[in-house]
Amino acid sequence: MSAPDRPALAPAEAAAEAGEFLTFTLGGELYAIDILKVREIRAWERVTRIAGAPAFLKGVMNLRGAIVPVVDLRLYFGCGDGACGPFTVMIVLQLAGRLAAVVVDAVADVVRLAAGEIQPPPEFAGLVGGRYIRGLGAAGDAMLVVLDVERLMAAPELALVDPDPEAQS
Which residue, 25, 31, 34, 162, is most buried by CB atoms nearer than 10 A? Predict the structure, then answer.
């Protein structure tokens, strides 16, 4: 099963989805996800590795009785070596009734992007991460890559949430 190839959001759609975003760094670049998808932010802690899992699937953690898969976005996007330091954090996401956590270099801030501040990305045919970019924005002088985290977690390599049934029609 392949991920649905949904076109980038049109400017009007991006504007309609403007709101607050949690920003974080991956390999020195600034990324953002919809803050409404964030359940909590945790300091890096050891996870239980699952035998045979690819390197970007760090393992699972027990979050107050819920077993949560942990994905290292640095390794998945190829922008880091996966080493964990004092600023490494796990962002626990609530997606379509499921929990998943992503490992990032550091959490930066919460920003509000108003209508029209999220621009459609250029075509990135063939890039693994390009199909998960919702748009591009700005945080001060920095470029902000806004991720479609639900599409990312529905990727065939992850399959942590069901793909959007509307996108498959």
Answer: 31
Instruction: Report the distance separating Cα 107 and Cα 23, nearest Å.
Output: 6
Output the 3-class SS for the chain.
Answer: CCCCCCCCCCHHHHHHCCEEEEEEEECCEEEEEEHHHEEEEEECCCCECCCCCCCCEEEEEEECCEEEEEEEHHHHCCCCCCCCCCCCEEEEEEECCEEEEEEECEEEEEEEECCCCCECCCCCCCCCCHHHEEEEEEECCEEEEEECHHHHHCCCCCCCCCCCHHHHC
Contacts of 107 (CB under 8 A, 6+ apart): 22, 23, 24, 41, 89, 91
CA–CA separation, 101 and 68 (whole Å): 7
Instruction: Report yes or no: 9 and 113 within 8 Å, Cβ to Cβ.
Output: no
Render pLDDT for 99-137 as a digit per residue (tens, 0 to 9).
999 999 999 999 999 868 888 887 765 665 677 888 899
pLDDT tens readout for residues 90-106:
999 999 889 999 999 99
Q: Which residue has the higher pLDDT, 123 or 35?
A: 35
- CA dist 169 and 157 (Å) reads 21
